[in-house]
Amino acid sequence: MVRYIKRTMFDAMRYLIPLLLLTSPAYAWEFTPTPICTLTHTEARADMTVTYDHATGIYAIAVTSPNKWPIAPAFSIRFDGPRSNIISTQRHQTDGATLTVSDTGFGNVLDGLEFNTTATAFTQTSAVTVSLDGAAGPVQQFRACTQAPIA
Fold it and tell me: What percent of the residues of the chain are helix, what percent strand, and what percent coil, each to the nearest 5?
């Protein structure tokens, strides 16, 4: 009887584990080259989108949190991992749950995303952390897109 129960439990687990993996959200970094160079990542904690528009030469990063971003005098991103860094600005815009920063250069942001393990976007009173697992390849594709000649 004990052998039958163990075997039945094993059979149930053999089918249950793959089913659970398929129904779990897949958090992946993704790159798309059109209509503009775009790098995206979605997690329960936050969505992060980085764009580059050849027409304007402007990079932007938008961090959308389930909670509304507070109005704050400064915004920062801390990258933790082998190439840790903190980048701060006072030139950000807050629109409810989305905080956006635009600039003509994003080398430090792209390095942070490509070479570290987590990114924490924060103001004085709010913060969200996202995983950078799997970001390196899409970041490299994004960099290549920004350097590609315009047809």
Answer: 30, 35, 35
- Beta-carbon contacts of 102 under 8 Å, excluding residues fewer than 6 positions away, are 58, 59, 60, 91
What pTM was estimated for this model as a whole? 0.81
- The span from the CA of 34 to the CA of 6, in Å, is 53
Write the pLDDT tens digit of every residue in 24-83. Answer: 445 699 999 999 999 999 999 999 999 999 999 999 999 999 999 999 999 999 999 999
Q: State the DSSP string of 90-105.
A: S-EEEETTEEEEEES-
CB contact at 8 A, 112 and 82: no
Write the CB contacts of 57 (distance below 8 Å, at least 6 apart in sequence). 104
Among 150, 115, 136, 146, which residue's Cα sits nearest to residue 37? 146
